[in-house]
Design brief:
3 domains, Beta-Lactamase, 18% strand, Hypothetical protein af1432, five-stranded antiparallel sheet, elongated
């Protein structure tokens, strides 16, 4: 519970930090900025917009941007038209209008409206408002470029801009830390010039597909070579930028160094593979231990696993379902370790008391397996593998929808294998008799879909036990 609370508090703190960073970025601009949601309402403004227009935050927030009192009907129509175009993802032309300032009378403003994107989704629009007359009076740059460049050049990511041919036209100083090259060594080259030769062709094809869409791209992984020759893994994201007539001018984005992350992921993967191998060995050992107690069922669990996995594949169950069936099949008779060997290998019919003891093995297996932290519900599947659709199974007498799919597959596989091969209490009945049995009880005891898949495995695909 403490971990969940800590995680939640950390999440809240991170969101507050992001909100503060957004506020700082907005207020770093000398242009007026407004963030507008999909309905057209203003949800955030910077101090420059309030200074330019003379309106307070209360006057602006939660108002329709095109309905602000400073716009006359013609200006409002122009604003609304560009807002709609921006939401469609297209570029809009600047709008120059005369408006009424609350304090200074008439103003001439230039308004740029563009799509506001989060990842690949348009979530609203951004309006950039410039005071044309103030820019002309002061002769200053109206877009606060220096402040934004300071922000770009202090970020831990490598910020870049390319032209329409993919050639770098701007790279931030961070490239020196990531690849060992100074910015001037990278300018006028493409990212493909810094990749291993064997990866270049695939990377060119990938980026060609991306550029052809003229859309933003996110989290593309590429290998690059450091100046000293070692591999660097970069995660690349970018947005297209266009000239007013809609022509693609290039892309702007970031390269993030994920080399350490990739190394950590490989180590985790290797560790998981070793653990899986260890678990597999333990399962095999348990399987052999169970089968050594009953020479008549030697190999039974492994054969059930082979058939059950083939049926699951024929049913196109998801990969997680296949894993559940594979492990559950190998362990489904684990509870028989607690049944006396004399009963397991008794020739002829069992007494009522002896059969009652046999019927305890699913519960005994469940009690053992539920204490093991498998990533899947293995214990439940093993518990239910003798349940039947009509409620006549054991130990719980479950019916239809209460029996999980993996247990239904296991039930059919178990019966077919048991009837096909020799048992202490009877000779082998053969595969044909086993298939006739499941067809006869299809929809009554056994799941129809599972039965059909089992028949297909044998009759259409020629399944044989290994």
């Amino acid at each position: 519970m403490t971990t969940v609370r800590d995680s939640s508090e950390r999440e809240i703190a991170e969101k507050l930090v992001l909100a503060d960073q957004l506020e700082a970025l907005l207020n770093a601009s000398t242009d007026g900025l407004a963030l507008i949601d999909m309905s057209g309402e203003i949800i955030r403004v910077n101090t420059a917009l309030m200074a330019i227009t003379g309106y307070s935050k209360q006057d602006l927030l939660r108002r329709q941007f095109d309905n602000l009192s400073m716009f006359d009907r013609r200006a409002a129509a122009g604003v609304l038209q560009r807002f709609v175009i921006a939401l469609s993802g297209q570029q809009t032309s600047p709008l120059r209008v005369r408006v009424a300032s609350r304090e200074a009378g008439g103003l001439e403003l230039e308004i740029h409206i563009s799509a506001w994107r989060k990842v690949n989704e348009i979530v609203g629009a951004i309006a950039v408002v410039k005071d044309v007359m103030d820019s002309q009076r002061t002769g200053t740059s109206p877009d606060g470029q220096e402040r934004f460049r300071d922000l770009v050049e202090t970020t831990s990511d490598w910020v870049w801009e390319t032209n329409e041919k993919g050639v770098y036209t701007y790279v931030s100083p961070r490239v020196a830390d990531i690849l060992g090259y100074e910015p001037h060594e990278v300018l006028a080259k493409s990212q493909f010039d810094f990749m291993p030769l064997q990866d270049t062709h695939r990377a060119v094809e990938t980026m060609a597909r991306v550029v052809s869409t003229r859309k933003p791209f996110r989290f593309i992984h590429m290998k690059h070579l450091h100046k000293d020759g070692h591999l660097v893994f970069l995660e690349t994201s970018g947005n297209p930028y266009f000239c007013p007539d809609g022509k693609l001018l290039g892309y702007r984005g970031i390269h993030r160094d994920i080399t350490d992350r990739m190394k950590a992921e490989r180590e985790v993967h290797d560790t998981c593979s070793k653990l899986e191998s260890t678990v597999e060995s333990v399962i095999q050992a348990i399987t052999l231990t169970v089968e050594m107690r009953d020479c008549y069922t030697s190999g039974h669990q492994r054969k059930v696993k082979q058939l059950a996995c083939a049926i699951a594949g024929e049913m196109q169950l998801p990969s997680e379902g296949l894993q559940v069936i594979r492990v559950a099949a190998l362990l489904h008779d684990l509870g028989k370790m607690f049944v006396p060997v004399e009963i397991l290998s008794k020739p002829g019919s069992l007494t009522e008391i002896e059969f009652a003891m046999i019927k305890t093995h699913p519960k005994a297996a469940y009690d053992i397996l539920r204490s093991i932290e498998f990533p899947w519900p293995i214990a439940d599947v093993v518990y239910q593998h003798h349940e039947r659709l009509d409620g006549s199974g054991y130990p719980l007498g479950l019916r239809e929808a209460n029996i999980v799919t993996e247990a239904r597959v296991l039930a059919v596989s178990d019966v077919v294998e048991a009837m096909t091969f020799h048992r202490a209490y009877r000779p082998a009945l053969g595969l044909e008799a086993a298939l006739r049995e499941i067809v006869r009880k299809k929809g009554i005891l056994y799941d129809s879909r599972v039965v059909e898949a089992c028949l297909s495995v044998f009759l259409d695909h020629g399944f044989e036990w290994g």
